[in-house]
Design goal:
By secondary structure, the chain is an alpha+beta fold. It is built from five helices and nine strands. The strands form two sheets. A five-stranded mixed barrel has the order 1-4-5-8-6. It has a two-stranded antiparallel ribbon with strand order 2-3. Strand 6 and strand 7 form a beta hairpin.
């Protein structure tokens, strides 16, 4: 597999670019639900969703945010070229985000690494995540941006956890699953 093939993943959109509605896929009902409306005058700066067949330390699939020209819709499946990762702690839990661009949007053909993304766009995305829960009195910490290699390691880790913890994902309450995942991460 070439480096470029490794960079392409499928994303299920939960929240379209420009939305203030926080949609989530509900695994029990197998439907998209409105989790909440953002408390502030914030909107998602890109398509936001998850990578199928992954499990992150917060007990959910691995999050991904992507630059796109025009918003799509919840449930849309999109090929994303990974550029890096946003290292985050959300409410005390590891909650990193993979970051990329739509693979088949010609406006992003020249975006191959984080260095190709204008610094102001990265600053907007960082600012969004620092602010989007402020009025809920929840703390988000951005530990920085990671490069493509860091993102691919995060992806592989989350794919491995998805395969390893199939039984636990179906049987444990989410809080117990998160505790198990984070306990094993520290070991």
């Amino acid at each position: 597999m070439t480096q470029n093939e490794n960079q392409i993943v499928q994303m299920v959109v939960e929240i379209p670019k420009g939305s203030s509605n926080k949609y989530e896929f509900d695994w029990k009902t197998k439907t998209m639900i409105l989790d909440r409306v953002l408390y502030g005058a914030n909107f998602y700066p890109g398509e936001y969703g998850y990578i199928p067949n992954t499990l992150d330390y917060d007990g959910d699939p691995l999050d991904i945010i992507s630059l796109i020209t025009y918003p799509t819709f919840p449930g849309c499946l999109i090929d994303i070229r990974i550029l890096g990762t946003i290292k985050m702690i959300d409410g005390g839990e590891i909650d990193s985000k993979i970051f990329g661009v739509v693979a088949n949007d010609p406006r992003f053909n020249d975006f191959k690494t984080l260095a190709d993304v204008p610094s102001h766009l990265k600053a907007e995305i960082t600012n969004f995540f620092l602010q989007y829960k402020a009025l809920q009195k929840k703390e988000v910490v951005i530990k920085g941006w990671g490069d493509l290699e860091a993102a691919l390691i995060e992806l592989k880790t989350c794919q491995t956890m998805f395969n390893k913890y199939q039984t636990e994902m179906l049987t444990l309450p989410k809080t117990a699953l998160v505790k198990l995942l984070n306990q094993n991460h520290k070991n």
